[in-house]
Amino acid sequence: MNRGLVAEVDLSAVTHNLKVLRRITGGRPVIAVVKADAYGHGSVEVSRRLQTEGVSLFAVAFAGEGKLLRDSGIDAGIIVLFDRFDPADYFSYKLTPVIQDMTTASAFSEEARARGAVIPVHVKIDTGMGRVGFDPADAVSCAMRIASMEGLYLEGLMSHFSEADLCDRSYALHQLAIFNEVRQGITEKLGRPILAHMANSAAVLSLPEALLDAVRPGLFIYGYSPFKEDHGLVPLMTVKTRIIAVRGLSAGSPVSYGRTFVTKRDSKIAVIASGYADGYDRHFSNNGEMLVRGKRVPVVGRVCMDLTMVDVTDVGGVSEGDEVVIMGRQGDAIITAGELASRINTIAYDIVTGIGGRARKVYSG
Questions:
Q1: Which of 73, 230, 301, 310 keeps 20 to 30 A from 47, CA to CA?
Q2: Could you confirm whether 240 is annotated as catalytic?
Q3: Considering only CA atoms, which of 301, 324, 293, 192 is closest in space to residue 253?
C-alpha cells in the first residue's frame, strides 16, 4: 500500500478555469503562477496543459522551480519572483528575474556583460506589502538606472496586493494608485510601454481597474475563488485515502491520544490511512469531516501522525479498503478546500499546498 493520500487531478478543469479567466479579463495575457508545485497540483503537468492552452508566461518562486519546468519541456517565459542568487542559472535556463534592489540588478548586469548577453528583467515595487521591492519614492530613478545597465532589458513592472480579498478594498485601491503613478513615471522617462502586472486571483475578481497589461492568477487556475462565490470555477483536485480498519467500540470507549473523544454509544470507528504527516492538519482533531460511501462522517479523537479516526456508525456497509474522500466530491456530497480552511482558521492556499502537496498525484483529462 502506498503511503497516505492520493490526489486525483483533472487537467480538463485547468482548461475550463482558463476560459473563465479569459472571459473575466477580456483575454488579457496570463502569467500563470505555478510556484509551490502549482499549489500542490504538480507544476509540470499543470504547466504543460496551460502551455497547450496558449499561456506564454509562468511565475515561480525560486530558480529551481523554473529549472524543473525547463527540464520538463516548458519553453514559455518563466518569471522567478523571489530568488536572486546564482545569476548564471537564469541565463542557462532562460529565466526572467524579478529585480527588487540595486545589488541584484548589478549582479545580473555583470553576468550579462561576461556572457555578452541581454536578459529581460521585471522590477518589483513595494506598494504596501512590506516584503520586498523598491520604495515607490525611489522606484522611478532606480528603474531608469536598471534600464541603462548593460545586458539588462526592462521588460516588466510588478507589485502585489496585500488585501484584495477583503470587502473593504480601499487599501488595495491605494496600492494600485501608487503603482500606477510609478508606472507612469517610468514609461514617460523610458519612452516605451512595459508589461505592468499586479492582479492576483482576488484582484481579478474584485478590481477590474487592476487588470492592467497582464494578470497573475494562482488560486483561480486551480479552481478556487478567494470569495464565497465560486464564479463557475472547477477545482482540479480530489484527495482520497482508504480505510485500513473498522473497529466496533462500546459506549464509553476512548479514541486516540489524550482521550479527547469518548464514545457515547456503541460505535463503529473507521481508521483512515492518513494523518498529519500527510498534511491533514492536527487541528482537524474532533473538528473535521470526511466522505465515506457518499456520507459525511466526523473525525473523532486526535489526528495522529499516520492515522485518523472517523465515526461511521450511521453509514451502512463500511469495510476495510473502502475509499475515503478528504477533499472533493463523493456521490452527492462535497468537501471543498474552502470548507476545510474555515474549520481550522486558515486559507484555501494552505489546504491545497498542504494536503494536496504531499499526496501522490494521478492525472486525468
A1: 230
A2: no
A3: 301
Q: Up-side HSE of residue 239: CA atoms within 13 Å toward CB?
A: 27
Pick the catalytic residue: 90, 257, 268, 276?
257
Place of cell 500563470: 32
Contacts of 306 (CB under 8 A, 6+ apart): 4, 273, 274, 275, 277, 278
d(CA 47, CA 41): 10
Check: CB of residue 76 under 8 Å from CB of residue 49. no
Q: Is 361 a catalytic residue?
A: no
Residue type, 267: S
Q: What is the pLDDT of residues 234-273, one digit of tens each?
A: 999 999 999 999 999 999 999 999 999 999 999 999 999 9
User: Do the beta carbons of residue 55 and residue 30 sit within 8 Å?
Assistant: yes
Q: Which of 35, 67, 124, 361 is catalytic?
A: 35
User: Is residue 100 classed as helix, strand or coil in its secondary structure?
Assistant: coil
Q: What are the tens digits of pLDDT across the range 279-328?
A: 999 999 999 999 999 999 999 999 999 999 999 999 999 999 999 999 99
